[in-house]
Specification:
By secondary structure, the chain is of the alpha+beta class. It has two domains: about 10-80; about 90-200 and about 210-220, Arc Repressor Mutant, subunit A (Orthogonal Bundle), CATH 1.10.10.10. It contains eight helices and eight strands. A three-stranded antiparallel β-sheet has the order 1-3-2. A three-stranded antiparallel β-sheet has the order 5-7-6. A hairpin with a 4-residue loop joins strand 2 and strand 3. The longest helix has 20 residues, at about 95-115. The protein starts with 16 loop residues before the first helix and ends in a 14-residue tail after the last strand.
Length: about 230
C-alpha cells in the first residue's frame, strides 16, 4: 500500500490523485458488471480517461485475474473478458439464460452481417418468436420470466432495454444487444453456433448435459449451475 493513501496500490503511485476516484469507478464496473458503457454522460468521461491514459494500467491490473481488457472504440465500451483457462472469478449463467444468449447472439450476427454500424435492436415479442424458431422442442419462457432473464443480462451490460413512449405491454419493450454479448458467447461461424444449439434439443435420444455460458466477473456463488464456453 502507498504510505499516503492506504487504499491505493504502490504500483500505481504515478496516477495523479485527481484520477484515482475515476479509476476506482472504472474497476468497480469492470469487476462488478464486466462492462463499462461509455457512450454518454459520466460513462463517456470514464471511457476516455481509461482509453487515453490508463489502458496499460488497467490491462496489467486485470491480467493476474485472468481477465482481458477489451477497448471497443466503435461502441465506446470497456470490457473485462474472462480467459476461461485462467480466470478464477467466473460464475455461470443458468440454462435458461444460456438459451437466451444463444438466441440473442444469432440476432446480433444476422444484423451485423448486413449492417456493420447500426445498433442491433429488437422487441421482446421478436425475441420470443426467435426463441421459438431456434428451439422448436423447447417451450419459450413466459414473458414475466423472460423479463427476469433479461434483467440479469442487463446487469452484466450485455443488453440495454427501453420502452417506447406510451408503451404498456412487455412485448413492446425494445432490447439493444451490446457488442459485449458476442464476446461472452463467441462463435467462429454459424455452423459452430448451430452445433451448440443442437446440444439443447430434447428430441435427441442421448441426454447430453450441455455446458452453459460463463458470466463475466460474476461471484462464484452460482458455480454449481450449468456453464457455457
Amino acid at each position: 500500500m502507498n504510505d499516503s493513501d492506504p487504499n491505493w496500490p504502490r504500483f500505481w503511485a504515478d496516477v495523479p490523485v485527481t484520477d484515482r476516484a475515476p479509476l476506482r469507478e472504472i474497476l468497480a464496473d469492470l469487476l462488478g458488471r464486466g462492462t463499462l458503457l461509455g457512450d454518454d454522460g459520466a460513462g463517456r468521461d470514464l471511457f476516455l480517461l481509461a482509453r487515453d491514459h490508463y489502458r496499460e494500467h488497467l490491462a496489467d491490473y486485470l491480467a493476474p485475474l485472468g481477465l482481458e481488457l477489451i477497448v471497443d472504440e466503435d461502441f465506446y465500451l470497456l470490457q473485462a473478458r474472462p480467459r476461461p483457462e485462467t480466470c478464477m472469478l467466473l460464475g455461470q449463467f443458468t440454462k435458461d439464460e444460456t438459451l437466451l444468449l444463444l438466441v440473442l447472439w444469432r440476432a446480433w450476427d444476422d444484423h451485423r452481417t448486413s449492417r456493420t454500424t447500426d445498433s442491433v435492436v429488437l422487441t421482446v415479442d421478436e425475441l420470443w418468436n426467435r426463441f421459438r424458431e431456434t428451439f422448436e422442442n423447447i417451450e419459450p419462457p413466459e414473458k414475466t420470466h423472460l423479463d427476469q432473464l433479461l434483467a440479469r443480462l442487463k446487469r452484466h451490460r450485455l443488453i440495454r432495454t427501453f420502452k417506447p413512449d406510451g408503451s404498456v405491454q412487455l412485448g413492446e419493450t425494445r432490447i439493444e444487444i451490446l457488442p459485449s454479448l458476442p464476446r461472452v458467447i463467441p462463435f467462429d461461424s454459424i455452423e459452430s453456433w448451430l452445433a451448440r444449439v443442437s446440444l439443447y434439443d430434447p428430441a435427441d435420444d442421448a441426454e447430453i448435459e450441455p455446458e452453459p455460458a460463463d458470466s463475466p466477473a460474476e461471484p462464484s456463488a452460482e458455480a454449481e449451475e450449468p456453464a457455457l464456453a
